[in-house]
Amino acid sequence: MLRGADAVYLVHPVDVGSPAAAGALGGLAREAVGLGVRRLVLLSARGEERARPTEEAVRAACGDLTVVRAAWFDQNFSEGPLVKELRESGELAFPGGEVREPFIDVRDIADVVVAALAEGDRYAGRELTVSGPRLLTWGEAVAEIAKAAGRELT
């Protein structure tokens, strides 16, 4: 499947900071480069130090790696792991406190990734941080969702 590809987008299905991510994505990156892939783009996480070993494992396979570090996805509230908790209990227990996050829509991440894949020379070896247009605490994010849903959520 990688043979003949010019560029590859790497994403770990669980969490780029998980213990298995570095070995899995590093191995895939080495295989891709061995098959002639010239451009690798890795989805990583903004501010997650546990993601660094994965970034380094992939970078070791391809020095021209583009790392896209994304903030928390908006879709975590509608399609991801937080949905069940919000729907069933009407509340979200998360240790975010009053930290403000620049939540981002995954479609915006896709735009950056497509540019990095298509215009690889422009982005080769770079680390790009993508984030949303405004900072919200987790409580403020849940309040926005409650307003849109017409339902009380905490």
Give a written overview of the molecule:
- The chain has 154 residues and is an alpha/beta fold.
- It has six helices and four strands.
- A four-stranded parallel β-sheet has the order 1-2-3-4, with helices on both faces.
- α1 (21-34) packs parallel to α2 (52-61).
- It is elongated and about 55 Å long.
What does this entry show, briefly?
This protein is of the alpha/beta class and 154 residues long.
Q: Which strand order does the major sheet show?
A: 1-2-3-4
Record field, number of beta strands: 4
Regions with pLDDT < 50 over 5+ consecutive residues?
A: none
Strand content: 5-15%
Would you tell me the overall average pLDDT?
Answer: 92
C-alpha termini separation: 45 Å
Q: Summarize the main sheet.
A: 4 strands, parallel
Radius of gyration: 17 Å
Structural class: alpha/beta
User: Count of helical segments?
Assistant: 6
**Order of secondary-structure elements:** EHEHEHHHEH
**Broad shape:** elongated
Helix content: 25-40%
Q: How would you describe this structure in keywords?
A:
single chain; alpha/beta; 154 residues; 13% strand; 4 strands; 4-stranded parallel beta sheet; 6 helices
Ordered list of secondary-structure elements with their pairings:
Blueprint: E1 7-10, H1 21-34, E2 39-45, H2 52-61, E3 66-70, H3 83-89, H4 106-118, H5 120-123, E4 127-130, H6 138-149
Parallel strand pairs: 1-2, 2-3, 3-4
